[in-house]
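Hi support team,

I'm opening this ticket because the web form for multi-chain structure prediction keeps timing out on my end. I have pasted the exact lines I submitted so you can reproduce it. The total is 396 residues across two entries, so I didn't expect it to be a heavy job. Is there a limit I'm missing, or should I split the entries? Thanks in advance, R.K.
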Amino acid sequence: MSRRLLFILPLLTLALMAGFFAWSLMSGRDPASIGSVLVGRPAPKLDLPALRPGEPPLTDAVLRTGKPVIVNFFASWCTPCLAEHPLFTRLAEREGAVIVGIAWKNKRDDALQWLKRLGDPFRLAGLDLDGKTGLDWGLSGVPETYLVDGQGIVRRHFRGPITERDLNETILPFLKGAAK
Amino acid sequence: MIPFRRYAPPSPADGGRKEFFSSPVCGGGAPKGRRGSWLLVLAALLLALPAVAVEPSEVLPDPALEARAREIGRALRCVVCQNQSIDDSSAEVAADMRRAVRERLVAGDSNAAVFDFMVARYGDYVLLRPPFKPGTLLLWLGAPLVLLVAGGALLFAARRRTAAPVAAPEPLSDEERQRLDRILRDAALRAAPQDEDLRERPHPEERPKDASRRVG
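Hello R.K., no limit was hit. The queue was backed up. Here is the completed structure from your submission:
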């Protein structure tokens, strides 16, 4: 009897592994994902020179006005940023979202030129030339986007470009939910 | 030792070009003194250090601090090239992280404080050596656990085998003994006719000598 049970063991192991692999495939689990430790925590500090000339420096005061804020790190040399840009334009124009843009490791002129060409959806914009602020925010590259509630707590973090689906399933509900 | 083979026999006309062929790769083994090139290459290969991406401009003037920075850098994962340490990675973010590590060290942070600084930004993911905590219990204890369970099972099985040795065979019943005798006798009989057969056949030398010739 116990010997017969032993023969089932390999099959059981196989079934367990197959189940795990199937779950990995279906659930959209990304083992390379770093995740973000910032989610649920106060946003790191912001103290950057303004990207656009003549504006006051960008500080984290903008994250604690009671209104939800979208913080987007971008660069003119970054192709995925190009792909997500129209979504931010739409968010700013149609939803009146407060979007803070931070040009990461980007020359001021290049970033300004890029925004001039594609449109500028940013309520406020800062320049993180040496990437120090990016490091404080746990950035691994551009684009990355953070949803910060009105109290300065990070609620969501997107590594890589946001998509139409992110917009509809996460960002818009967040903006509405946090506005209440 | 591998014998040197000469691909281009040196001729006086070769003159200076002889050196060209004396590399160990070409099987040089050129005249005296050149033989050492083999050892030289071997030594160079053995002494070669793994290439690090740390750039000269990043290196701290204080060698003690720099050594600590290297120690920390080797243990921090680059968040872009995820299987490399920040010392090995030439990604921009890795360079930023190396710079931040050095800044913290110069500011007087302990190694642990520098690790905390990075974990606060990138999470445990940034540590190439995962910390021991409830979430990583399975990672740390999984393998020893499997070893314990498997070893325990083997031990248990072995102990049971020695505790209950195979019982001495029961003596045969009369019926079985008769059956066995019959089987053995049958086998002996089956083998016997072959022997008879052999004996009945004429010895090869007794056959008529021209028998084969007649057929052929």
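A quick check on our side: The CA atoms of residues 18 and 24 of chain A lie 10 Å apart. Let us know if the file doesn't open in your viewer.
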